[in-house]
Hints:
The chain is α+β, with helices and mostly antiparallel strands.
Amino acid sequence: xxxxxxxxxxxxxxxxxxxxxxxxxxxxxxxxxxxxxxxxxxxxxxxxxxxxxxxxxxxxxxxxxxxxxxxxxxxxxxxxxxxxxxxxxxxxxxxxxxxxxxxxxxxxxxxxxxxxxxxxxxxxxxxxxxxxxxxxxxxxxxxxxxxxxxxxxxxxxxxxxxxxxxxxxxxxxxxxxxxxxxxxxxxxxxxxxxxxxxxxxxxxxxxxxxxxxxxxxxxxxxxxxxxxxxxxxxxxxxxxxxxxxxxxxxxxxxxxxxxxxxxxxxxxxxxxxxxxxxxxxxxxxxxxxxxxxxxxxxxxxxxxxxxxxxxxxxxxxxxxxxxxxxxxxxxxxxxxxxxxxxxxxxxxxxxxxxxxxxxxxxxxxxxxxxxxxxxxxxxxxxxxxxxxxxxxxxxxxxxxxxxxxxxxxxxxxxxxxxxxxxxxxxxxxxxxxxxxxxxxxxxxxxxxxxxxxxxxxxxxxxxxxxxxxxxxxxxxxxxxxxxxxxxxxxxxxxxxxxxxxxxxxxxxxxxxxxxxxxxxxxxxxxxxxxxxxxxxxxxxxxxxxxxxxxxxxxxxxxxxxxxxxxxxxxxxxxxxxxxxxxxxxxxxxxxxxxxxxxxxxxxxxxxxxxxxxxxxxxxxxxxxxxxxxxxxxxxxxxxxxxxxxxxxxxxxxxxxxxxxxxxxxxxxxxxxxxxxxxxxxxxxxxxxxxxxxxxxxxxxxxxxxxxxxxxxxxxxxxxxxxxxxxxxxxxxxxxxxxxxxxxxxxxxxxxxxxxxxxxxxxxxxxxxxxxxxxxxxxxxxxxxxxxxxxxxxxxxxxxxxxxxxxxxxxxxxxxxxxxxxxxxxxxxxxxxxxxxxxxxxxxxxxxxxxxxxxxxxxxxxxxxxxxxxxxxxxxxxxxxxxxxxxxxxxxxxxxxxxxxxxxxxxxx
Length: 908
């Protein structure tokens, strides 16, 4: 929206009244052109880059505050104004929404359910101190003095309905004005800049509140949803964001915000690294950095030159002084960000929020390398966790888990770097062959995305090889932006049915097997009933099957699906239109329903058992319920050990034996979340204001639409059949229940007995017997290999006399009674012994060609020679310049004359 339009002006007109009442006047900034409000005339709006920082060494507040003092002050101030303090939400937004991975602001907590009017807010009005994560400025962190990947957003919110107005624009402005005065900030220093905000599908006018050159808060008035165009929403929402780190910074007047927020951490890192601080340089750097964002190498150089010129020192000297401190600042920020991520259940991986956590973690390691900080990342994380745990007790609870993940990820990164160096060298060689001397940004991003190779490493290797690298200073920001958004995939075709919702009898009468209904519509080869007992496919549970009986004729129901609360029953006939309007009897395949029901409840129990054994970082990443076997995918940072699998299985069966009553009830979404928390959404985001809660008391609770047993004892025996790593950070458990579990155990018992019979031993001593046989086999194998080497040497002796000299090349071509591997060994020995061209084949018409460096220099290359032979005599093969393998359709002796002629011709 054009900020100068009349419509934009109308959005602000009510606020103007409050600002005018406070004595503020409207001006236009001569630098950026934005309209702003100030008590006194001024030419610029009060925000960087229009204004420099004026608070460094000159705080506008009446006293210095640390971050946590400000947090308490902020919450208590708004509590006195009638707001209820609510606890922070996890930083993992995917717990309750499916469009983003991480919480980027306090309003994210209430999107989309509260902001769309579907669910009531947890309180109204409310105030929250919300850790938020944004990686869109990750490359600026440490450099500008003000950017964070993780920051604390103080948000006070009011959700206004037409019939119930809590408060709106005037009160929001007044609260902000009063809070700043509480801190001792003079109203003359405060400017309110008119702006526009969009995020999370919502939009509205806003005010950016600035003091002495820095934005401290944003006051947003959400009135619309953005869906290609602005549309009114049922609520009018006050959405404020107070940057509590910036408030702490301004109140202390330190050179950077990091000095104000992480003083203990920074002091410890300075002691460890021996980095000294020149406060004069830092202050000047911060003042000028406040006027720009670092997006490119040229931006950074501009900043360095400006500071260096002002201080009358060289850019190189400034870099040497400022660089280490910027790295320390960034490590301070990144370790806090990573602590919140891991504490709230993010598992580093190559997808989604796990990718972002790994990006932050690996960037910390690179920054540590630049500081020559030769210690495990685990030790640095311990410092940050110890500090944060004092203010966030939940972090202390995950202390060991965080350190275990960090330790494992650092080892993985070390292996990635080792492999990455080889990959980069291959790329460099390929560039040189093509006479190119630059690695483009696209390749750098691909290397980081697919191989985990950091761009700094690529640049280091390329510098030695004379290859340039296109590496912008905002590289990690570009990568993060590609992974921060999460788009929901639309599944299947869109179906528009103008029919009433189907009455769901399977919830009302879960034990019924038959029912009577009426066919009220059709779609393709499916019919729609006014009510049904058939459970539709959903939540990883396949649909019911069975029959519909119409006028005595049976139609098989092969699949059931749900579209906008309408149930479609797919029949084994195409002529369904003729059935509309008729009465039917439905018959459920009860045996199938029971098996699926047992498997579904068993999934809940296994998940709860895994969380109990492995830790509450475990979340369901997927599930598929079956008849004979099912699977459960869980987030976990490493492979499951045999001992862990046994413990999970044992605990799951303990829950079964306790025969616990499974409670199923419909609840108001807000009440359910308040009672149980986001653990409800283990199976994914559930839409609607009412959710179906399935609780196994003391074991598990989830919002779930599936069918479930009445008591856990109805499930029967649970057996984990196998586990596998299906993707980075996700373990799959395949399991069976009841009779299928017994069948699985008996099957493996049969395998055990058959194996014991083969060895003619009792099953209990089978492992010992297998070990003995294996060790003997290895001994025999080694002896066979030794004998093969002896035979190869003898064969070499027999054909050494057959070496020919063609021009100045030593050539040997022979057919041997040998395997392909033996042919390669013999050929290799000849090359080592000074032969230039070796062609060996066997009776199976397999062929090996090896050539010396001398042959290659003369233009005789193994892969090209193999191609000529196969083109002439049929077959196929390939390889490299020095070695090629293949097979031909002719006997080896038949091709020798051809081979000798080519060598003679090409070696002249």
